[in-house]
Amino acid sequence: MSGLEFQAELGRLGIDIPIVFITGHADVPMGVKAMKAGAIEFLCKPFREQDLLEAVRKAINKDFERRTKQSSLAAIQQHYGTLTPREKEVMVMIVSGMMNKQIAGKLDIAEITVKVHRASLIRKMHVKSLAELVRQAIRRETAHPFSVVSNPEFLKQGAAVD
Q1: Residue 91 near residue 135 (C-beta atoms within 8 A)
Q2: Does domain 3-70 have CATH number 1.10.287.1490?
């Protein structure tokens, strides 16, 4: 199995690790293919020791950033999972810019009840502000692009929240 085949197999298996290619016989198309597939660096022998160290440092930094983002998203997902279905509905409406009074009218509940749900979901989502809640919703939305936050039909029909 060649390095390019191995890289493709890792991708097929969903294994996302930074790869530094080192080869003694390469051509430009091979290097381009490896880089397009996500390689950090493509080094041809002979190479300078410093070039290898820089490539490894770059790979470690990239993997650290990926793991940090993945961990942060997992925490957001975990927090979101603690919300009740009603809190999820309220969250979608808050994030979409609706006021408490509008949410209350849409859900046919008292405005004070919306405020209680809002306070509860802010506590459960571990955020300190509405802006932080919106950022988390966007991050979650980026990871799950077909969730209700991006579905404009949700607010029209009052659909269930995922």
Answers
A1: no
A2: no
**pLDDT on residue 141:** 80
Residue 46 C-beta-side C-alpha neighbours within 13 Å: 2
The model scores a pTM over 0.90:
no
| CATH label, 82-157, candidates 3.10.100.10, 1.10.10.10, 2.40.128.600, 3.30.470.20 | 1.10.10.10
Angle at 56 between CA 52 and CA 61, to 5 degrees: 150
Q: Is 17 helix (H, G, I), strand (E, B) or coil?
A: coil
Rounded distance between C-alpha atoms, residue 162 and residue 157, angstroms: 15
The C-alpha atoms of residue 128 and residue 123 are separated, in whole angstroms, by 8
**Taking the mean position of all CA atoms in its chain, how far away is CA 110?**
34
Closest CA relative to residue 109, chosen from 134, 83, 135, 89: 89
